[in-house]
Amino acid sequence: MKIDLESSLRTLHARRTELMNQVSAIDTALAALAAAGITVVNAAEPHPAAAADVTSPVVPRRVKARRVLSEGHRQALLEGRRMANHRRAVDEGHARELLVPSPALSEAAALPRLVKRAK
């Protein structure tokens, strides 16, 4: 097995020259900016109060409990998704349209959603 060191060395020297050219271009740009006295407008200035914030004690924060759906609400969501998927399949021609709604929907449709209290 023969290793060609010359081609590897040439490649590495070419890459080194390219990177040195980039570094020199960056140096000239930095020198030009420093000579012109250009300052960055959007730079955040360090605040003396920032050091005090770091040493301040950590205050615990209350986190609200995760909301959990009731079983009836979860079932209603599942039924709604099932009906939407079936409606989509009917529209695409892959399923037949239901003639009688499912019993779960008919029970829910019979009960009023909001009931006014009698005084």
Which strand-content bin applies to the residues? Answer: under 5%
Shape: elongated
Using the CA coordinates, give the radius of gyration: 36 Å
Helix content: 55-70%
- The number of E-state strands comes to 0
Task: State the end-to-end CA separation.
Answer: 100 Å
Biggest pleated sheet: none
User: Low-confidence stretches at least 5 residues in length (pLDDT < 50)?
Assistant: none
Task: Give the helices and strands as they follow along the chain.
Answer: HHHH
User: How many helix segments?
Assistant: 4
By helix and strand content, what is the structural category? mainly alpha
What is the mean pLDDT? 79
The gist of it:
By secondary structure, the protein is mostly helical.
List keywords for this structure.
119 residues, mainly alpha, 4 helices, elongated
Give a structural overview.
This protein has 119 residues and is an all-alpha fold. Among the domains are: 1-35; 71-110, no CATH class. Helix content is 59%, strand content 0%. It has four helices and no strands.
